[in-house]
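Chapter summary example.
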Amino acid sequence: MNTVFTRSNKLNQVSYEIRGPILKEVKRLEAENQKITRLNIGSPASFGLFAPDTVVDDIKNNITRAQAQAYCDSNGIEQARAAIVRYYQRKGVRNIDIDDVFTGNGVSELIMLVMQALLNNGDEVLVPAPDYPLWTGSVNFCQGKPVHYLCDESADWMPDVRDIERKITANTKAIVIINPNNPTGAVYSRDCLEQLVHLAEKHRLIIFSDEIYDKILYDGEKHISPASMTEDTLVVTLSGLSKSHRMAGFRTGWMVLSGNREMAQDYIEGLILLSSMRLCSNVPSQYAICSALDGYQCINDLVKPGGRLYQQRETAWRLLNEIPGVSCTKPRGAFYLFPRLDMEHFGLKDDRQFALDLLREKRILIVQGTGFNWFQPDHFRLVALMEPEGLTKAITDIEDFLSTYHQ
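The structure predicted for these 407 residues follows.
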């Protein structure tokens, strides 16, 4: 009798459309030597935006030291954690030290870790819609229940605080804040964040603050960390070097615990346990953290007027809004756009099919909006990392495709 192994039931509600089923079609087309314009993943180095030489040199210069060290402390090497503490102190976060810092193999590993340590069956976590889908996937994998709160497109994609409060129950354990937001590019105002923090304090919720894009800001926007706004509830701030320092493949991330640790001592012990079980994060890449956070911030040159990221955002936003049946709120941070498609104009019923049709006809790969847990099949995410000339061609091709498209 043949034994058939099936996947765990824990995966039944887990999806990650950014690298989802449409990639099978991409691989088929590429096997036929078709060139695909990949506008689906926010990986700066894939578009010629490389890590600063000084930061990479720090890794090279410490390779021998890293080899001699072997496994480091489960929380990370001391000098890296000290640099992270200094960084958040400059952002106004109080009463933190190196014991509050955990380094990770990118933020992705840490998102899974914080959910594994927290959730029991049926525990609820408030997650934005649209969201970065790893948050929803991790909650589902850990047997929790993601409860999606609305971000309001008509209000520059700010979270709808009234919608959030209506969805808080006795089972709600935490709220996820993604700011700057992926996929919308929204940067939350102080007033919005104060309301979110107040809700968390009122209902005794942990705040998970995903701040991986906190340095990628346009038009004079300022990033505010919720951790700088409260001492009355636990805040877990997550960030890293993959986006601001173009180091996605180096897998250099961290999380910082701040605020009211007394309410979560047992949870913190769980984080320590899980962190210890994976021994430690990538040691060589941790040597990049000091110079990355304390040194010259070349990202500022890329996001100011005339800078490459700024120009790419301007180009993409302008061209998308010129397409009949398409509208796009201007992103204030990150390097994504989340345009809206007029459902009636295009007869939209299935946005994954839309993405597949675009891929087959124009060889352009985007991610459909429902892949970010948006409620309607009327959006898609476009990565604006390609240089303006290539971006212009890609969006012109999208316009040509849409000129005759109807489901």
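To summarize the output: The mean pLDDT is 94.
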